[in-house]
Amino acid sequence: MFNDFKVQLTTFDWNGVSGLTNILMVFLTAFLLYSLRQGSKNIKESALSRDADILRWAMAEMDILKPAIRVLTDAHKRIAYCVLRIANVQIIILKSLSVIGRQKSF
After folding, report:
1. I need a labelling partner for 22 at 20 to 30 A (CA). Which of 16, 39, 64, 89 fits?
2. Helices (H) and strands (E) in the chain, counts
3. Global pTM?
4. Which domain holds residue 84?
């Protein structure tokens, strides 16, 4: 049955093969462009996910720090640290002036 089957490449039309290859390359290029588009979407989504993770971490840290912040703000509302600091500086200055005055009296 296949004894009479012979392939004659000399009479083969290579223009048809070139056309089929070009069509295949168009499909391959379209597929590669689609995969690049999907890749860029995945990168954007991962960046958004990373930002969301950072925000969740910051919120968790703030939840941990809120009691300490509340203690500081309550203490500041009772006695302002700036006023207390100024009062301490004034006391230190008065003490140092009294020491200087005692030294001059000798």
Report:
1. 39
2. 2, 0
3. 0.43
4. 13-105
